[in-house]
Write a structure and sequence with these properties.
alpha/beta, Rossmann fold, 2 domains, 6-stranded mixed sheet, 4-stranded antiparallel sheet, 11 helices, binds adenosine-5'-triphosphate, ATP binding, nucleotide-binding, ATP-binding cassette domain-containing protein, ATP-binding
Length: 302
């Protein structure tokens, strides 16, 4: 018996005879924050809708908590919370009233409302009309609504889309709290590699309906091979010095030397070494790849 909250086995899905999801085998470990990464139109929302049985999958291709979705729909969906596209919020009601309504609908005690408001950091704004909430607050209310039934699994479709940097940080911290302190498994989709790298423990990368990569965040880093850019004076001398010290130089411009990034500690050692030998280091920068460059790497490696 595996320990996947979500498993799809060679999932295929068509819209009007057009293949949209192609032979997709996702494995989302229980307790993970699984970053589901792909450019616009890759098939993320379609996959999430299939996982929620909003779109019907062929039988024996989608398993949630080890159970086939089409045959166990109600039992599975009771244990799943989701935020897909716009959260279903009544703007003329306060955050508290929105949550009270959801409790009523699900036959859950209203005391849950205050617990949820606190969890997503909306206690102070509890009595404010939801239409007056910022986009980030609306997203957090949407997540609170999804959490009312205390689901084990949370599916979040691009929850940081359109948010300002503060809103993005709030959602990121909320996801970390939910996974770390409340034992939730979270699948979160995004088209931004940097966004996923900051929270996810596991990553699946999809393009045109096909899974290009799946693994832990460390496995992704091994593949994406981040670089370290060093801005230093007397560039020719510095370059010569680094080569003699055993570093391999990937690129060099008038101002910068680029070497493969290993880890933060090694970067610190390199910095000290240059300074001790009379060089002035004005910046050390870990260059992260964007999704397009990562795609190129993955395709090269396959
Ligand atoms: N109801 C539909 N009928 C026909 N085609 C659809 C439908 N919904 C989505 N598609 C197509 O399926 C493909 C995948 O769309 P999907 O929304 O799943 O992508 P996505 O990765 O979530 O991207 P985005 O972030 O832009 O929503 C796209 O080519 C889209 O045009």
């Amino acid at each position: 018996m595996n320990n996947y909250a979500i498993e799809t086995v060679g999932l295929n899905f068509n819209f009007d005879n057009q293949p949209i999801i192609k032979d997709l085998s996702l494995q989302v470990p229980t307790g993970s924050i699984y970053g589901f990464l792909g450019p616009n139109g890759a098939g993320k929302t379609t996959t999430i809708k299939i996982l929620l049985n909003l779109l019907k999958s062929p039988s024996d291709q989608v398993f949630i908590f080890g159970k086939e979705i089409n045959h166990n729909r109600i039992a599975i969906l009771k244990r799943v919370g989701a935020l897909v596209e716009q959260p279903a919020i009544y703007g003329h009601l306060s955050g508290k009233e929105n949550l009270n309504n959801r409790c009523l609908l699900l036959g859950i005690k209203k005391t849950k409302t205050d617990e949820m408001l606190a969890l997503v950091g909306l206690t102070e704004a509890a009595n404010k009309k939801a239409s007056k909430y910022s986009l980030g607050m609306k997203q957090r209310l949407g997540i609170a609504l999804a959490l009312v039934s205390d689901p084990e699994l949370l599916l979040l479709d691009e929850p940081t889309n359109g948010l300002d940097p503060n809103g993005i940080i709030e959602i990121r911290n909320l996801m970390l709290d939910l996974a770390t302190n409340h034992g939730k498994t979270i699948l979160v989709s995004s088209h931004l590699l940097a966004e996923i790298e900051r929270t996810a423990t596991h990553v699946g990368i999809i393009n045109r309906g096909k899974l290009l990569f799946q693994g832990t965040i460390d496995e992704l880093h091994q593949l994406s091979k981040p670089m370290l850019e060093i801005e230093v004076d007397r560039i020719e001398n510095a370059s010569e010095f680094l080569k003699n010290a055993g570093y391999s130089i990937t690129a060099q411009t008038e101002k910068r030397i680029t070497i493969p990034f290993t880890n933060a500690k090694d970067s610190g050692i390199l910095n000290s070494l240059l300074i001790q030998n009379g060089f002035t280091v004005s910046s050390l920068y870990q260059q992260r790849k964007d999704l397009e460059n990562l795609f190129l790497d993955i395709t090269k490696n396959n």
